[in-house]
Amino acid sequence: LAAEPPVLNTGSTAWMITAAVLVLFMCLPGLALFYGGLVRAKNMLSLFTQCFGIAGLVGVLWIIYGYSMVVDTSNMVEGEVTFNSFVGGLSRVFLAGMTPDSLVGEIPEGVFVTFQMTFAIITPALIAGAFAERMKFSAALLFMAIWFTLVYAPVAHMVWGGAGALMHNLSLIHI
User: Fold this and answer.
1) What confidence score (pLDDT) does residue 79 get?
2) Cα(8)–Cα(57) distance, rounded to whole angstroms?
């Protein structure tokens, strides 16, 4: 039997859009206001700017190469632990191959990209509270770009990247 092609589900799509908006609001303005309340009044604008800057930077990095590093499984070998088990490929750079009709499961791929991007944004923004009032803006953005590339994208790939990823590799370990 041939598998049926995925069909767009408007209810799931609407929920994913709503969830993406809620996660984005947790970061901007939620996280910015929360961390802003923890710092001295003179540093509140700085922390707001860091949260917004991190959101913009990570959003751009997500579109350029982050999504590809997380979801690309083209070089993975089933049943083998390879480099691509830990880091996805770059065949989806700049969202290559995505069309208006692309579906991930039963939702449009564009909605999926946006939903996943909100988590890519809020995760490093949470880290900003650890160095509130202690790091220059440019240093914070540089750190977040490096952290996103070397930590977030590989870990997200290992968890969500399909066959050969972390969950599959853990099943290869016999205790």
Assistant:
1) 64
2) 31
